[in-house]
Amino acid sequence: MISAILCVIGAKILFPHRDIPVLFTAASYSLIDENGRPFSDVDLRDKPYVCDFIFTTCGSSCPLMSSKMSALQPKMPEKVNFVSFTVDPEHDTPAALKEYAKQYHADESRWHLLTGTSKQMSAVAEQMKISAQPATATSTIVHSDRFLLIDGDGNVRGVYDSNDQQSMDKLIADAKYIADSRGSRG
Description:
CATH architecture: 3-Layer(aba) Sandwich
Strand order of the largest sheet: 1-10-9-4-5-6-2-3
Shape: globular
Order of helices and strands: HEEEEHEHEHEEEEH
Number of helices: 5
Strand content: 15-25%
CATH topology: Glutaredoxin
Mean pLDDT: 87
Number of domains: 1
Distance between the termini: 29 Å
Number of strands: 10
Radius of gyration: 18 Å
CATH class: Alpha Beta
């Protein structure tokens, strides 16, 4: 009896159950990747991924976010993918995204940079509950600097502040847990 209790306690210590709730259903999309090929959320079924919203001509938060995304690649299990959605589709053609990906040493087998029409990109941001405002005559593009973790079932499991190291550490731990639990609800 005591050995059974010790086994349960040991299992809880070695393999703690983490509660990473489903926050909401991630966006459905059918876009174009940096190679000019169709790419959709269906391509990532059964694969967890981290995503962000950037644009290639950004001179402030986007280079920082993309550097952090690049740094995440070796820290994550191979099963974890990365997606960067442009918030400037008029400028961010597949060729521009391809060049941008090279700057940040994007592993093309895992990191996908996506573009589409303005309407499509706005819909993705809205469905992901990310703020993104196009440029106007009096203001530049404004967008969130959050990273999202999506499980293999297409559910958002976390939203992380890219400017906070503790939040980024939690993203890494949560992504590893999701990947180890078959990329989905486990």
